[in-house]
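Bumping my old thread because nobody answered last time. Still need a sequence for this structure:
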């Protein structure tokens, strides 16, 4: 990718992420493994997988798709600090609920926390409410 979250490579990867991320809809949330919890959410919510890929925090290698949790947290924190760049600017152009979806995903990062509060959880559609419920399940599982 060239640093622009909307370039052709990012769009293709976003489509691949939504279509090929391992389906975890029949699995229970992982216990005591933050990265696995994030992957579990991506596998249950193709829209989230596509959003993460579009934001430039999903990559692919010979082992398949993987989430770059460090980059996800860093980009959100840079946005919150007012330090902008191509992907950071893209975060600012996303809808409020898209931003919150990525913040929920970033909460499983072990590198750096991101700003979050419960007032951010309002105004979600049915899919967003399912994501929040699954996120709560993953947090409760440890």
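Sorry it took so long. Here it is:
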């Amino acid at each position: 990718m060239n640093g622009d979250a909307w370039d052709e490579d990012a769009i293709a990867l976003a489509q691949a992420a939504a279509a090929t991320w391992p389906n975890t809809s029949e699995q229970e949330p992982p216990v005591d493994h933050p990265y696995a919890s994030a992957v579990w959410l991506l596998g249950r919510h193709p829209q989230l997988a596509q959003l993460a890929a579009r934001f430039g925090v999903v990559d692919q290698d010979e082992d398949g798709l993987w989430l770059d949790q460090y980059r996800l947290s860093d980009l959100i924190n840079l946005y919150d600090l007012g330090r902008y760049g191509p992907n950071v600017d893209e975060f600012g152009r996303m809808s409020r609920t898209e931003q919150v979806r990525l913040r929920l995903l970033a909460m499983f990062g072990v590198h750096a926390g991101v700003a979050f509060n419960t007032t951010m959880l309002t105004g979600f559609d049915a899919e967003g409410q399912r994501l929040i419920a699954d996120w709560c399940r993953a947090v409760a599982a440890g």
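The longest strand covers residues 58-61. Let me know if any region looks off to you.
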